[in-house]
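User: Predict the structure for this protein chain, please.
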Amino acid sequence: MRNPGPRNMPAANSTPIVYFLLSLTLEILGKIVTKTKKYAAQVLGAQALSPQSQLSRWDSMNLSISVLKKYIGLVITMGLIKVKRVGMYWNKSNPYISTPFFNSVLSWNQFKLITSLLHCYDNTRPEARHGNPSIMEKSTWDTYVM
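Assistant: Here is the predicted structure, written as structure tokens:
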């Protein structure tokens, strides 16, 4: 008879990121990075961008697992610190409501760029091309990151 409860638990003195990576593994993060880059290439290849466009800065951002972890960390932190608008997390003009931590992790422009292009699904898959509603009915995470 097996003992109930979790297996493969990290040491009690582990950092929060170790626990986080039990659910969102480096493999899954890598797949999200790959899907996001592929989607960005589709979006950027489908339109002519002006040099002033935020999307034109995508190549210089160099999305990686490390950058994606920072992005997710900021999103989680946003759940702990409430402001009226997302851009206010990067506000430097009012020292009473300033949250300099956010700008030290990612710039506001980087955050917006990742938000606009973040993708977990391959749009080139046959079921995605026709707006197939069965995609939304699938329940496993692997469906979206594979």
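Residues 133-146 have pLDDT under 50 and may be disordered.
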